């Protein structure tokens, strides 16, 4: 096998090839750039919200960053499993789970390997790294635990849905506001994101070889597969969903806007 | 592009000793594809231009090249989607060694293909093997492959890192592995081989293979990620480890 490709092609050894070499003419740098801007924006906002520890609850709306609220120092306790020795923001108790789920998500991996690690920045654009071991070594081999984050992530959309139901119960009785709708939509988006996960698809039926012998799994697999095709888009929409839901609760809580009531 | 118009084709010319781009001004009529124009250059200006092709219908997978930097079948790339104002570059696939001009030596792919453990049918039941459409629907997608090797060519694991070639089967071969692993009648287990020798872990699921596949096979979503998940079943699932420890034997596949 002749392995002198790179040298022959450009008269350059692979190691001295210019970075980002490509013959592409389109704006290939746009997608990775947008990824970086959006993800950095979300990380900055999310970190601030996680540590802010205020304005995350305004009766009856609870921000998804603080749900479930497990410490007794919460403004609105979901389940008081952690005593008052916990004095930090209660968001820090739960955020590692959704964070780990998104961090090891097959779709986000694609997005940040391209956007942040430039490996590759775009298709047929030379990556800047000299060596490449992919996900074969520590720490990236840990991406294989995505499935466990999936298990841990299952309760979250359910809890957010319960929050949405609770958001019908205002201090002055039963009702519905724009916030109720936002909370429910957010729970739906998170549910769609979790269900469309590749690990979910595998566990539901992807591991089966003879579908005709497992009709239930077969149907489940078909259903999840249909969602899974859209997993990337759902990942973005649900990310915006979480952030915007928090923004809404925060604005209502601080009195910047008032929540329009439908009834 | 209604009437014939003139465009500049910037074509890589050379062989194992090196080479470079050469410009050819050539007439293009409406409805033509890049391969038509290459043939016109061959017929009128550069009779020694080496181009590999066979079917001119997107079926044989011979005419792969990089048009304006994007890996494509030249017979399926219409001239009308390319900007005629600038020279249109046509380069050989970068990942494979040059033979001449646009023709590369794709034997790496055949070597990797030879290393795929073949179909191993389950023992035949007395009334013969039986398969239903729903059992093979999933693997039929992979049979659409025309072996154009555009996916192998675009994959950065070997495109940018020649040294990975000996231990990386590549996306085209991964769909072959997936087809066998998901086959209702196959009894083989290639998961250790995939993870340890075929570089499944080298793939970082950045999906360029899926982006360029002219058959629109969802290589990453339907073959590579499911294979990675099957490897997780086998190697990284503590519940499976526990089961194995309890049973005191190496268990087969989780099903
Ligand atoms: S998804 Fe994996 S196999 Fe496909 S091009 Fe990317 S790294 Fe290569
Ligand atoms: S999988 Fe698609 S891109 Fe790869 S060789 Fe087959 S047809 Fe070509
Ligand atoms: S959440 Fe994206 S693949 Fe699992
Ligand atoms: S010539 Fe057969 S695919 Fe292009």
Summary of the model, kept short:
The complex is a heterodimer of chains A (263) and B (255). In chain A, 51% of the residues lie in helices and 3% in strands. Chain A has 263 residues and is mainly α.
Give an overview of the whole structure.
The complex is a heterodimer of chains A (263) and B (255). Chain A has one domain. Chain A is 51% helix and 3% strand. In chain A, the strands form 2 sheets. In chain A, strands 1-2 form a two-stranded antiparallel sheet. Chain A has a two-stranded antiparallel sheet with strand order 3-4. Chain A is globular. Chain B has 2 domains: 99 residues, Roll (Ubiquitin-like (UB roll)), CATH 3.10.20; 141 residues, Fumarate Reductase Iron-sulfur Protein, Chain B, domain 2 (Orthogonal Bundle), CATH 1.10.1060. In chain B, strands 2-1-5-3-4 form a 5-stranded mixed sheet. Chain B has a two-stranded antiparallel ribbon with strand order 6-7. The C terminus of chain B is likely disordered. The complex binds iron/sulfur cluster (SF4) (2 copies) and FE2/S2 (inorganic) cluster (2 copies).
Write out key terms for the chains shown.
heterodimer; A: 263 residues; mainly alpha; two-stranded antiparallel sheet; 11 helices; globular; disordered N terminus; B: 255 residues; alpha+beta; Ubiquitin-like (UB roll); Fumarate Reductase Iron-sulfur Protein, Chain B, domain 2; 2 domains; 5-stranded mixed beta sheet; two-stranded antiparallel ribbon; 15% strand; disordered C terminus; binds iron/sulfur cluster; binds FE2/S2 (inorganic) cluster
Sequence-ordered SSE layout with sheet pairings:
The complex is a heterodimer of chains A (263) and B (255).
Chain A: H1 5-10, H2 30-52, E1 57-58, E2 61-62, H3 91-94, H4 96-103, H5 106-115, H6 146-153, H7 155-166, E3 169-170, E4 173-174, H8 178-195, H9 198-206, H10 215-228, H11 231-253
Antiparallel strand pairs in A: 1-2, 3-4
Chain B: E1 5-15, E2 18-28, H1 34-44, E3 64-67, E4 70-73, E5 88-91, E6 98-100, E7 103-104, H2 107-114, H3 133-140, H4 150-154, H5 156-159, H6 171-181, H7 191-196, H8 208-212, H9 219-236, H10 238-247
Parallel strand pairs in B: 1-5
Antiparallel strand pairs in B: 1-2, 3-4, 3-5, 6-7
Helix pairs in contact in B: 6-9
Bound molecules: iron/sulfur cluster (2 copies) and FE2/S2 (inorganic) cluster (2 copies).
